[in-house]
Amino acid sequence: MRRAARLQLLLGLPAVALIFVFMILPITNMVEMSFRTPGVTEPFGNDYTLMHYGRVLGDPYYWGALGRSLLVATTVTVLCLIVSYPVAWHLSKADGLKMVILYALIASPLMTGVLVRNFGWMIIAALNGPLNQSLLGLGLVDRPLRLLFTQGLVVLALVHVFMPFMVLPINNAIRNISPSLVEAAASMGASRSATFRDIVLPLSFPGIQAGVTLVFVLAIAAYVTPALLGGQMVTYMPTQIIAELTGTFRWPLGSTLAIGLSLTTLLVVAVFTLATWRLLDRVRA
Amino acid sequence: MTAAATPFGDAPAARYGFGLLVVLLYVFLLAPLVTIVGASFTSGMLIEFPPRGFSLQWYGQFFQRDNLVAALLVSLRVGLITAVVTSIMAMMAALAGQAVAGKLGGWFQIGMVLPLLVPELLTGVGLLFFLYKIGLGRSLLGLQIGHILMSFPYAYVSISAALRQVPPSLGEASSSLGATGWQTFRLVTLPLVRPGLVMGAIFAFINSFDLYTMSLLLKPVGGTTLPLALFDFLTYEFKPTAAAAATLSILLALIGVALVQRLVGLQRAF
Asked: How far apart are CA B33 and CA B30, in angstroms?
């Protein structure tokens, strides 16, 4: 039996090797790359230097790209929460065939690629597209708005891309709330909205926290949407990193930027988690 | 007590207001997909919604574009290999995960989904340098490795969830009756986890089919995947051919959703 258990453990080796060799080693390797000198004929040199960190920290251009990424990711996260909560609440109350249909409506966009969904927004936001046609039809504008290649469209498309990542954890959290708590509140004379405000909303907080963290981390590192819908004029951190790596082949500089973006993300997530720690503790109590 | 129709009570105004809001949000969620599918059937020359007339000409156009068809074939091949390799590896890892006890078990679970927790951009950049270092830079094998790595957690999560549903007593009964470990796995465990296994393979395939950032960084010389080809196509010529190509990938996603529902139910999968 002992031997069987040890054999069973060995089955995990290929997966552990995959993740160690092709993920942990490469990321460690990338940290080393950020200290390399720039190359002359190669993408990097043989010596070590701190110059890339100095350069990134001292250049307002990179601060601008990072600031824009932070601003967009925060806006997307907040908007995503606002539009996802009603859907998650509604989904959590559904059952039977209705539930299956609603899950399918949320899963279908999730399983369709990001690029394909962004392309859909390109069509909708085109100069003579359905969005402009409706605005004109309603008399809200007198000539078509230029929506494509604006930051507003980037935000809208990102909210769409990440909405399922917010809906699903909140839905699970609301489903986990014991119905007896809601009944108890009602029997003690609380109104529906008071029950919602004082019981359901706080108890769904673990789902909100998971969704917010997930969406922020994904949104700040998103590349396709800003690259396709943001146009060439505005730079975000991920588009800048990819440009350094595949355009100008400055690998050490690209690594430094990638590390800077990761550390910033980690810092924001840590601050958010600590700030909401007490709230989460109160919910658990 | 029945569940409230809205968080704010059952007054008609609250009911209709909340209902309308939810419907609008679902419209928002589905609008891009409906628009693409609609635009792909236009008989006009421009990408537009609502489409002008009905025709299948853009699907014909798509299959006449050698570069788009080649990219579709690369995506399908890489996706299929990813699905097969990740589900076998994830099945093995999930069995190993059962044997890892205590705190170490928790770390093992986190390790297995690490590619999901770290942004694709960061993993892709690291992998790009690493593949060059070991001589696989800009090769199809390198791209394949990147796809297997990024899709592995999806297969692992589905399969280990399915494995947890199998009562351990079944395995014990089987071995007390004299079955070897392999016999128990083949005759008892495997049939019971098969839906989870197939679901894991579907998730791995769909994820691989959609990967963009990783594919862009690891793009092999002379080859490309459908999302990359589609991006280039959209940047240079904005024609309904792209809508036809995108509709094909929406169709794949819908087939995936239907299969997952049949196998284990969407609620358990998400």
From this structure: 6
Decide: B171 and B181 in contact? Cβ < 8 Å.
no
Taking an 8 Å cut-off on Cβ atoms, the answer to whether A192 and B8 are in contact is yes
3-class SS of residue A13: helix
A232 burial (CB, 10 Å; 0-12 / 13-18 / 19+) is exposed
A181 to chain B: closest CA residue: B1
Q: Find all residues with CB under 8 Å of B70, minimum gap 6, and list them.
A: B223, B224
Q: What is the 3-state secondary structure (H, E, C) of A230-255?
A: CCCCCCCHHHHHHHHHHHCCCHHHHH
Predicted confidence (pLDDT) at residue A88 exceeds the cutoff of 50: yes
> Residue B108: its chain A contacts at CB < 8 A?
12
A 44-103 residues with CB < 8 A to B: 83, 86-87, 89-90, 93, 99-100, 103
Higher per-residue pLDDT: B78 or A185: B78
Give residue-wise pLDDT tens across range A200-233: 888 899 999 999 999 999 999 999 999 999 887 7
Q: A136, A198, A201, A148: which is closest to A173 by C-alpha?
A: A201
The CA distance from A129 to A56, in Å, is 41
B88 DSSP β-pair partners: none
CB B112 within 8 A of CB A19: yes
- pLDDT of A176 higher than 70: yes
- Residue A189's region, left for phi above 0, alpha for psi from -120 to 50, else beta, is left
Would the CB atoms of B125 and A241 count as touching at under 8 Å? yes
Residue partners of A285: CB distance under 8 A and separation at least 6: none
Nearest to B29 among A5, A109, A218 (CB): A109
Token pair of B198 as six digits: 């197939």
Whole-complex ipTM: 0.91
CA dist B209 and A232 (Å) reads 26
| CA distances for B191 relative to B154, B158, B185, B187, B188, angstroms | 20, 15, 9, 7, 6
Helix orientation angle between A25-33 and A251-284, rounded to the nearest 10 degrees: 120
DSSP state of A45: E
| Alpha helices by DSSP H, chain B | 12-40, 57-64, 66-99, 102-112, 114-117, 120-133, 140-164, 168-176, 181-184, 190-210, 213-218, 226-236, 240-263, 266-269
CA B133, B139, B140, B141: dihedral to nearest 10 degrees?
-30
Question: What secondary structure does DSSP assign to B137-161, as a single string?
Answer: TT-HHHHHHHHHHHHHHHHHHHHHH
Q: Does residue A200 belong to the interface with chain B, where contact is any CB pair within 8 Å?
A: yes
Q: In this structure, what are the phi and psi dihedrals at residue A37, rounded to the nearest 5 degrees?
A: -75, 155
> In what helix (H) or strand (E) does residue A217 lie, and over which residues does it extend?
helix A205-220
**For residue B253, what pLDDT band results from cuts at 50, 70 and 90?**
very high
Q: Give this prediction's pTM.
A: 0.92
